[in-house]
Amino acid sequence: MQLIGMLDSPYVRRVAICLKLLGIEFEHHAISVFSGFDRFKALNPVVKAPTLVLDDDQILMDSSLILEYAVGISPTGRLLLPTQGTKRLRALQLNGLALAACEKTVQIVYEQQLRPQEKQHQPWLDRIQGQLLAAYAELEKQLPQAAIPHLMGSAEVSVAVAWSFTQHMLPGQISADQHPAVAAFSANAEKHPVFLSTPLV
């Protein structure tokens, strides 16, 4: 099994960390959708990261769909989400907010770094930045100020990965002082062995 994509993508890193938590062995191939476009296209014509190439050469893409599949083949039988009730709802809400934060960070990066300055549309950029701020404000309200649990799931991974990604790509735009719970949660998660073995950079 091969995971294709760069770890500076929060979606690729999210999958890599969760696969390790599930005890699933895989090879990671750090191929960029930009500089390695043709090489990536040979593996997946859609050129979408992350891509999971199965042992029979079938492919899966989209981090959430990959993780849904991965839970079903985990040799440990471990789950990434609670199965029912308020705990499941909370985990789904945290996942949704974290993935929204990743999406809006990516949109800002693309707008600022890939689009020529004269073609950037400030009202659109302001809207995306407002959405990014709203996602982290909601995470700050919903995330308990607690150390990372020993047995984390996809929600905890998603929150920590999202925060680290935004801080790396958009330094100074989202203040840690205004989001102490999220910042502390992510800092604790980054000390976990699976995070340390799957660095952002």
Automatic annotation (TrEMBL):
<dbReference type="Pfam" id="PF13417">
    <property type="entry name" value="GST_N_3"/>
</dbReference>
<dbReference type="InterPro" id="IPR036282">
    <property type="entry name" value="Glutathione-S-Trfase_C_sf"/>
</dbReference>
<feature type="domain" description="GST N-terminal">
    <location>
        <begin position="1"/>
        <end position="78"/>
    </location>
</feature>
<dbReference type="InterPro" id="IPR036249">
    <property type="entry name" value="Thioredoxin-like_sf"/>
</dbReference>
<dbReference type="InterPro" id="IPR004045">
    <property type="entry name" value="Glutathione_S-Trfase_N"/>
</dbReference>
<protein>
    <submittedName>
        <fullName>Glutathione S-transferase</fullName>
    </submittedName>
</protein>
